[in-house]
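Researcher: Quick sanity check before group meeting.
Model: Go ahead. Protein one:
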Amino acid sequence: MLRISARSVRAHRARMALSVLVVALGVGFVVGTLVLSATIDAAFTGLFTSGAADVTASPRAAFAVEVEDQAISGAVATVPATAVAAVAAVPGVAAAHGEVATQDVTVVDAGGHAVGPSSGAPTLGYNWYPRAHPIATLRTGRAPTGPGEVVLDAPSAAAAHLVLGAPVRLITPAAATPATLVGLADPGPANPGVGLVFLDTPTAQAALLGQPGRFTAVTADAVPGTADAAVAPAVQHALGPAVTVATREQQASSAAARVGAFLSTVTDALLGAGGVAVLVGSFLIVNTFTLLVAGRTRELGLLRAVGARPGQVTGMVLGEAVLVGVLGASVGLGAGIGLCAALEAALRGFGVDLSAVGLSIPASTVPAAYLLGVGVTVAAAWLPAGRAGRAAPTAVLREAAAPTEDGAGRGRTVAGAAVLLVAAGALLTAALVVPHTGLTVGAVLFAVGVAASLVGLVLAGPALARTLVACLSAGYRRLFGTVGALARGNTTRHPRRTATTAAALAVGVALVTGLGTLASSLDTSITRDIAGSTGADYVLSGRGGQPLPPQVTDTVRALPEVATLTRQRYAPADLGGSQVSVSGVDTATLDTTTRPQYVAGDTSALTQGGIDVDQATAAADGLTLGSPVHIVFLDGTPADLTVGAISRPPVGGGKDGSTFQVSLDTLSRYQPLTKDFTVYLGAAPGAAPALGDALHQALTDAPQVTIENRADHQNALRGQVALVLDLLYGLLALAVVIAVLGVVNTLGLSVIERRREIGLLRAVGATRAQIRGLIRLEALAVAVHGTALGLVLGLGWGVSGQRLLVGYGVTALSVPWATLAALALGTALVGLLAAIIPARRAARTDLLTALIAV
């Protein structure tokens, strides 16, 4: 039977080609993700391994937090200088040093232009001290020895045309420091494009941290022959529970994960593309094997007649699926590695050089590729293989190539209807219960609803196809005569084939419709939220989420064009096991600049030390005015506050990641080192037109500051959403392409299966043009049917998703009707285009060959 499977795949290789292609697409994107992730991890691990000390002691955080969330506060956790001496006295430690390290550094040349990696990778700032494992070595010049001296990595300096003696400025949330370039450092081959800047220790403490006499960590070099793992517990004992101690390998892995996160969007996109390809492609594979089994009824019946058992026939078809999966996985494995190599070369053009480590292929890549490729193909072919095993031996006596009954049975239809009802109930419940149970429960219900709707679509698909296609093509006879009637009959006579072909298109359209509805709702909500809550004429913020140095606020405050100034700072905190963000604002001008939309209480309560909680969080946690709120900040500082106001959540706010608002004085009481993250400015009467020019002139020497008027600020927020949506729409375009391949594949197999039918039509006088029209009309009916199902599913997903995110400020439901109309017309056109090749093949069918086809 295995030999028969192999011969069958060879005999039907043209029919299997698209299935192999779809499997290869899915596997290729997943392999590319695995390889690129491993390569990035190896590059950054190599960077930090080369510079990590044997043992490093860092301040302990009260809870785990993403590095981006910690950086927005501008406060850097530190240890006192006495910790260095304590570590140096530990047995097994050869030397101990205090380290200053931060990644919130902007280097500016004399012309006010930023100096650093063109890739967007961070510039890391360090103090220079003798290291057993140096981060970089001097290429030319000397080490910094006092105030006003700096060493830069040579690639960044060369890109900015800086030479020794050139004046530069270092800008951090702590200070803006003028300096002279006294040395160029070679970052070594392990550096993937990260910028480096070095200062002497006292200057680094003042310029990078704003905390003289403090360090971000204490590094220890172990005595030769002493294991790092043996020294680490002793260092922990010497410093106590206030610090976290990590060996060189542990520190390198942690740092690599944090700094490498800026490339995670690429890997997420690849993984999403692979998931979309696998999901939509599975429908194509199902249809391929369904049609192949249906077209080989006589062959399978002959096997049964000569003694093949049902299990052997089923195994034969599954063997074919295994071979298709192996071929697709093999092609996808090579394509994925090639894709990663192309991305690595593209990243090198943007300044991210991963060539030092080469492509890192994890050991799990090859097994994962074949497991995915074979697993998806076998799973998709399982039901058609089962039907093949049930082929009756008497089928060899029948002339019909395929049964006319196509699986739209009553039991299947009832089961599909029941599952669709479950899906509708889950989506409806998700939309209604979120304000009372929080996002987590609603998300689970939403996921159940989406999954159930897909299952219901598959189960009830034949019944829907038989009914809806008949309705959608009701005008075929009147418009196209006999050809139209034949096309309508063909699509309704085989509802399973029609349903499976349309399902792939329906999923693609549903994804586009659902995400389009969410995108439109989010865009409308952002526009309405900013229009109603932003009274500032201009907004200042740091590029890349970097807090603003105090000089920026002081500079703009002195401008005569500025009438009101509202500072906003952030600090991560923990509320009952959930990470939240506490925002501190100037309450004196809050009502005129950010205009919080209170549903209870007012700004005066914040002035008196109260906390403003968003409405969704208050409902989920049962908070009312006067309720106590206990939070713990990242450094372990506790705060017991009282709810003084409840407000509508802004876009992005809500339970699980909420932003709580307090006065700036209250936040400074618990977190005095936080820096301004956003500054809202109101213009003096009549000075609004001149304020923009005044700000740009006053902040010429601060290129890290983003200056936005109200419209720019709104567009920037909408642009962030648009960037993500463009990526998602790219993935969805892949889904539509695969769905179109499914239509092409189904029509092509249908033409092969119906050679005798087409021959008979030609024999009774059908012209080639009529045969082409027949195939095109069938494709159009399938495309319109799939589009209609996708629009209904997508609208259900989009509306439920919007209601799910009401607590996150997505309060406006906006359906992009124009986009959906264009989508519907586009898919109809795609259906016609997909039929071009199959229709041409059908029209060229040789009449005599078709009539004698077995």
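Researcher: Fine. The other one?
Model: Protein two, sequence then structure:
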Amino acid sequence: MTPFLAVIAIIAAVNPFAAAARLDGKRPPPRHIITAGTLSLAIYALAAAFAGDILEALSVEPESFLVAAAVIIAASGAATLALGPLRLHYDPASRYADLVPLAVPVLLGPAGLSAVIVVASRESAGLAIVGSLAAVVLCLGLAVARFGAAAPLADGLPRLLAGLAVVVAAGFAVDGIRAI
């Protein structure tokens, strides 16, 4: 896997367009963006740095995890393809709005974490951190931006990236099955 494809795999799994659409057009305040972004990046960086240890603690071989991650990423992408981005209740006045739903599940989800662990275990932790940084920055940038006249893009782009996530997942599954 080339570095470019590794970063694209993480971005497709996180799906920044779906993440922005999940907030239903509400613009998060700057402190929520900073808190959610920092927490998400810290968790992604920890997952990348300790990917091998995580797999070892779970007694899972990297090749087997590759197949499992493919299922998780494909399921997430297929759900977004079929149903569109899940809309979440986001109340900026809530005390924990920066953590739920902005950090979890908008920025941090099973598909994104799976992709980070796969890239870190197969390539390098640094590459996984770069991919997660790109995905989180895109998510937060799109959450702050308003689509305005381009509102139909808010439904089409998440589905397009979800389709790419399904293709990435298929590649992961094939690689994992070949390695097993």
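Researcher: One line on it for the slide.
Model: The mean pLDDT is 92.
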